[in-house]
Design brief:
Elements lengths: L19 H11 L3 H6 L1 E8 L6 E2 L1 H11 L4 E12 L3 E11 L4 E11 L4 E8 L3 H9 L1
């Protein structure tokens, strides 16, 4: 379990993922520590949220998360390595995101460079068009 209480998260465990940087990413994000979350990214790293333009660079990622991610909780459940070589490792993780208004199934594609910095986080909603329209109408 990852909750100590409603506001404090311990380190996140993800079935199939042993990489500490990925667990740290979700832990910092869930703790609303957005500057520390962005610090895990490489200088040219980016966050690609659903329905938004790509957010590139640590400062821009921090600003975006401060504006859009307060109170959002990520619950990654399981993942796998999609690709790995001497330069990058790509992971796919699936789970849920909980907002104040709804929960939705999500996948995260996370790419780490060979120095264990985050190069990319692509967030994909795993919801049908009808489910997304229901969110808008709620």
């Amino acid at each position: 379990m990852f909750l100590i209480n409603a506001n404090i998260f311990t380190n996140v465990d993800i079935n199939g993922i042993a990489e500490p940087i990925i667990r740290e990413y979700f832990t910092r994000l869930n703790n609303n520590d957005f500057e520390a979350t962005a610090a895990l990214f490489a200088e040219q790293g980016y966050l690609n949220p659903p329905f938004e333009k790509m957010i590139k660079g640590k400062e821009a990622i921090t600003q975006y998360l401060n504006k859009e991610a307060v109170g959002v909780k990520c619950h990654p459940e399981h993942g796998e390595i999609l690709f790995s070589n001497n330069l990058i490792t790509k992971y796919k993780i699936e789970g849920k995101v909980q907002t104040n208004y709804f929960a939705v199934n999500v996948s995260w594609l996370i790419e780490l460079n060979n120095t264990k910095e985050i190069m990319a986080v692509d967030v994909k909603l795993l919801a049908s068009l009808n489910e997304l329209l229901n969110f808008r109408n709620s």
